[in-house]
Amino acid sequence: MSKPVELSILDYSPVDEGLMPADALAASVRLAQHVEAKGFKRFWVSEHHAAPATAGNSPEILMSRIASATRTIRVGSGGVLLPNYSSLKIAENYQLLEALFPERIDLGFGRAPGADRRTGIALNDEKGKSLPYPRKVADLLGFVTGNHAPGSSYEGMQAHPHTQSRPQPFVLGASGATAEIAAQAGLGFTFAHFINPRGDGPIAAKAYRAAFQSTDFSDSPTVIAAVFVAVGDTEPQAEEFADAFHLWLTYAESASPFDRVPSLATTRAHHWSPEELAIRERNRGRLISGTAPQVALQLQRLANDYGTDEVMINLMMPGEAARLNAIDLLGAELKSTPLKQFEHGGGPKTANVYQ
User: Fold this and answer.
1) Type and span of the H or E element at 288
2) If pLDDT is split at 50, 70 and 90, which confidence band does 112 have?
3) Is the pTM of this model over 0.90?
4) Which residues form the Luciferase-like domain (predicted)?
5) How is the chain split into domains, by residue range?
6) Which terminus, N or C, of the chain has the lesser number of Cβ atoms within 10 Å?
């Protein structure tokens, strides 16, 4: 027995060589409009700090621009970095977005700092203390609903503006601990397969479903698996896009990141050191790449492994035209062969191997 798996987008607003951050943000708006026309469910934007190759550092502001330029697609954060901010202020931001764009706003949040150590200090150096993450989550949800935990010093407080609908909260994570937080609060759960592809995700998704408790936010569990994707017209082209992705990622997680997403020309000219090749091999499972039929098959495997309701793809490919073309290629492929969620262990039993 099966049902369709929906596709969504996580966008880092990549800044291509020769362009400025303003160009990247405008491209994000166009990408959102494009995937909305293709029937994608959500468009989430990221929060990264001191990362010049990605322009998105304030998801709420970019969400407002994207939501105003689209009509139906859900728009969200992937995600707001909760430890950096006041839970009340986040609740107010997303209540305001919900008031402006009813029933279209997702509040995805995570516990990572999203920055190097120095930038993390700059984001938080005026705080007298840091609160445990579960407490931050409880406060955030309390401010959204007005229902705080017993004994909370914020009892009776609710974020304004009050709205008839609520933003849909999702816990973003890459471990079983975050799955437990999502399950106990009755929230959606998004697993960052693009960070941790080592097999923990399907286990966390299963544990989340088993522990899920119905709350005011939802009466049923929702799992999203998120992964980097590169799609080419041909296998050689897809391999080049994969090369460019791995070159960007190798340096993005180093002390010397690129200030732009490497172009195909830059990637071709790069001479990989043994150390870089070792990093690339470790990161191999974070990307699904190939032609549209190959990527569709691998996304089906991913969906089957997670038993997922939804797959969220992140196109860290150089060039806006390439990213739009990837959506067109994948959309055409999935129109003829939609992804399916196989229930009760059904469906194809395929190796869990990603490119």
Assistant:
1) strand 287-291
2) confident
3) yes
4) 17-303
5) 2-342
6) N
DSSP string, 69-137: H-SSSEEEES-EEGGGS-HHHHHHHHHHHHHHSTT-EEEEEES---S-HHHHHHHHTT-S----HHHHH
CA distances from 54 to 27, 48, 51, 193 (A): 12, 7, 6, 20
d(CA 77, CA 170): 9
Instruction: Could you please state the CATH topology (level 3) that the domain comprising 2-342 is classified under.
Output: TIM Barrel (3.20.20)
Strands 105-110 and 168-173: parallel
- At 230, which helix (H) or strand (E)? strand 223-232
Residue closest to 333 by CA, chosen among 288, 304, 296, 290: 296
Buried residues in 224-248 as b, exposed as e (16+ CB within 10 A): bbbbbbbbbeeeebbebbbbbbbbb
- The band of 16, judged by pLDDT with boundaries at 50, 70 and 90, is very high
To the nearest 10 degrees (0 to 180), the angle between helices 200-211 and 176-185 is 20
**H runs (alpha helix) in the chain:** 21-37, 59-69, 87-100, 117-124, 133-145, 176-185, 200-211, 235-252, 264-269, 274-283, 292-306, 320-336
What average pLDDT does this structure show over 89-117? 91
Rg (CA), the chain: 20
- Give residue 113's pLDDT band: very low, low, confident or very high (50, 70, 90): low
Of all residues in the chain, the percent with pLDDT exceeding 90 is 82
Instruction: Using a pLDDT cut of 70, give the percent of the chain over it.
Output: 93
